[in-house]
């Protein structure tokens, strides 16, 4: 057959077609991203020897691989190999001389025995080398750069390299250098900008580099992407750097110990689009040097020590979409010039901004607004609840008061509403239930009063919630492309360039008695309601127990009454339930054991009684979950229900015995009284029958009394 190029990538192949051995003119074979398994030592030699391009990347191979198995492929120029199952074992083959000259080598998840493959010492035409997750140790292989004058890209990420050495001469052709996620110690070489003046992409992130940023980096006029985040760099940004690197599009210096001022007026970062300075020690006021950049899209100065007011000139950065400045010392009111920006994400949390909540944001593009932990006062502007695209509104830890939700847009996409730790003193308005897409709602630590709205049971909390974590992606176009070996097949050296971005949407929410951080896809499936630490009263609406998808429910520290109903078993997804510090009474329903996902349960300090259901996963709850309920008994408390029942039984028996004794005493009283009366009468009668002075005196007085009574009666009748 005359087939020259065969692309079977990204299928579900578990084996290769039998006809491959008959394709005697095949030059290009791409089997990447399949499920092909088997032993590599026998698989590779069976492939056509005419291959120039061979990709076995991302399959299910196992066993060992010897590069000498490629000995028959004398024309090979591109070779790619990795496995999704464990690592591929290989051994040094110092005596083997390869019959080919590679242009591209891409290896992933190899156990290279701590050294780079020795056959590479005989390669002199490499353009791109990519070895990741392969346990490379020692120093950066500077000899690769010396031996391959056309080398354009080096990627040695996620290895165990400990030292960065540079060639002694200028390297013209290298455009791409990535040694991130290693263990490289020491300071950056002072002459790095002189040795690599034509780099367009440089990534040294997640190492142990320390010291200052070399001033020679100002000579890297072509540098478009620079990531030195997560190291131990300190000192100020060199003037030569902020003036000379005018091609920089992406600058990421996050999580170091850099200090001083930024954005001086003489800054010449005219091409800057993405700027990450978060997690450093930069301070002072914000200067106007950033205005020299043509189209900044993201500004992240979070977790630094910037102070003063927010300058008005930020409103002049027309292309700004992400404004992230949490964790600084900024104060004052938010300038009205921000209304001219079409911002997507605004994070001003953990500062000292004051005044009313800005009423001038352009909400047409706004996805997230975070004003957490400031000194804002007044009410929540109604326009925020009309915004079509707003998904996250975090106003916790301010001084906001007054009514909320006076006007709610029917099309609101709000998925996260966090109003905890403010000064609300009203009833919870039922209009809040019109926010049909809410998945996380925090109204805790306020002074809300009255009953819990029954309409909470009609809110989505998982049914229709549309929390879409907002990802910011930073792209970087490939720097060299050529067609190989014909116009039908395109091979490039892009090497997955770009910044691996972190989802911007991160939400902290109280669950299981601790604040958990939810982001990315996990946030899509987190649904919670927190009404704790208010002045709510009355019974918990029965509709609330129908929230089948809710995961966290917190009604603690209120004045709620009533009992926990059997229908609590409807909360099938519930993982955290806190009803502590209320006035609930009655038994704990045994149906609680039906909640298989329940990992936290607290009903302490209520008026509950009866035996605690102690079965299934409920046995994992400690006695602190039930403390403060004197009438509860059974495990895990120390109070035995048996002792309690015996006491009740004994009390009833004593009560019945006392009642019986009382009946007997009354009968005895009646009989005794009758006997005394009869005895007294008989004695008196006997005494009268005896003729004595006492009896004669008795009868005389009786006759006298009768005579007087008759005289009185006669006088009364005459009248």
From TrEMBL:
It comes from the Eukaryota. The chain crosses the membrane at residues 668-690. Keywords: Leucine-rich repeat, Membrane, Receptor, Repeat, Transmembrane, Transmembrane helix. Belongs to the RLP family. This is Leucine-rich repeat-containing N-terminal plant-type domain-containing protein. It comes from Brassica campestris.
